Amino acid sequence: MESQATGSGQVSLEYPLDQADKRSKRLKEKLRHWGRGAQEKSHWLAERLMDRRVCVGVTGLSGAGKSTLLTSLIYQLSHPQKAQLPGFAPALNGDLLGAELKPALDSGLPVFDYEGCLSALMSHPPRWPKSTRDVSAMELHIHLRRHRRLGGGDYKTLILELRDYPGEWLMDLPMLRMDFRDWCRHQAHIIASDTRAGLAPGLLTRLAALSPEAEAKESELQALWREYRQFLLDCREKRKLSYLQPGRALLDDEDYQLLPLLDLRGFSADQLKQLPDGSNYQVLRRLYEAYVEGKVAPFLESHFKHLDRQLVLVDMIGTLFAGEQALEDMRLAFTHIADTFRYGESGFLSKLWRPKVNRLLFAATKVDQVLAADHDALRQLLGQQLQQTFTGARHRGLPIFSEAIAAVRCSHEDQRNGRRMLVGYDLDGRYLGFENAEIFSRLPSEKSGWGHYTGAAPPQLRPPQGMDSGSIPHIRVDALLNLLLGDKV
Ligand SMILES: Nc1nc2c(ncn2[C@@H]2O[C@H](COP(=O)(O)OP(=O)(O)O)[C@@H](O)[C@H]2O)c(=O)[nH]1
Ligand SMILES: [Mg+2]
What we know:
Elements: E1 4-5, E2 11-12, H1 17-39, H2 42-49, E3 53-60, H3 66-78, H4 89-92, E4 96-102, H5 114-121, E5 136-147, E6 153-166, H6 167-170, H7 180-193, H8 201-209, H9 218-239, H10 269-274, H11 280-304, E7 309-314, H12 316-322, H13 324-341, H14 348-352, E8 359-364, H15 372-389, E9 400-404, E10 412-416, E11 419-425, E12 431-434, H16 477-485
Parallel strand pairs: 3-6, 3-7, 7-8, 8-9
Antiparallel strand pairs: 1-2, 4-5, 5-6, 10-11, 11-12
Helix pairs in contact: 1-11, 13-15
The structure holds guanosine-5'-diphosphate and magnesium ion (MG).
InterPro entries: P-loop_NTPase, YcjX-like
Organism: Microbulbifer variabilis
Pfam family, one: DUF463
């Protein structure tokens, strides 16, 4: 059957049966193989049943603030005397005794570099953690005092397993539902639906002119791929777009050569199938399938299987100030995230994998870049974007939460000439005061209204000094903890 592009930029897809079956069988075999490994980890299960272990996935596009939040979170939980966590009941009641960081058992994933990130934040002058683009895992053993009903008390340990992975990988998951032809049409549709083509008009014209049946020339495909990768990077850097595939191309410089053929008109699915092995279409199709099976499917299995909760970090401020297109693209990304986590659907993904994530949290990060009076508007904006995408069937009873946080509060508010403003240090260490463009709790209804935000993004700030002798100041990390763990402590 045909795939159909719908107005929202989504594609509803069904495979020609034999091909879909083969792909699905191959993937299923792989999944079963991995599944056996997981069964051996029965101690996990026991701990889960006793409510002692909760596995939280932390994701967000690169720069969203994952490493910084993890560092702040671990620090707050391990230094209960210094931390300010009034919104997290165990801390408020003095029952939070501390936490220890351990490698995640059996995950085979590198441990999160907490020491490195913390020492960057606490150095003189303070620095942001180095940007990382890989996945990591760790366990935080949180020690708590437990009160007995009949008086007296004892202790319990909650194991918080944190798995941090790039949001760019999440953006690749829809590829599991598309064959190469579907993907080409999907990409062509997305490129045609906004103004991103303006970033690389020459390249996109050449891609559209690349004949599916012509013999593939490796040097030509390589050159096109280099340009296409730069186009994707520009979509991210210059337009702050979120839903970009292949996502891994934004994180490493491997030679994926994953190019969409943008003009398949004039070829039916059958005709494409008959094209010779050495044609552009067949060569690119094989590269696409190798990527989906070699990179995307293993990630789904090795990572997602264990997650109980998922936290998605969003640079809502950066996106809002980048303008309407960036925000629309973020919504499109949310739609795909919703599709990934939805329950009980009969779609292709859920045949392979049934998500057991029982809570999905979204947090707007870095809200210390705007005045406290705007925090609520930000939270409302994020909530509205989520409401628009997570409608009815999309999340089938999966509870969604949203927050607005700053993992490390880099500014404080001051009054100058009767006006509230933010003061802090910029990345070069210059002391500065600024007032951000007011954030409204509704998006502009007219195109012209976006002028209020465009080009008015607040400055990037440096972490504050003196955290090594005191605590890490934050905004609402305690509220986030409560959403993540409140029912488990
Ligand atoms: N003002 C402010 N900036 C932050 C905060 N957290 C992260 N940032 C900025 O965002 C950048 C990326 O953060 P990072 O944690 O490395 O993001 P990751 O790529 O998702 O791990 C940092 O280098 C900082 O410039 C925060 O709480 N407040
Ligand atoms: Mg990072």
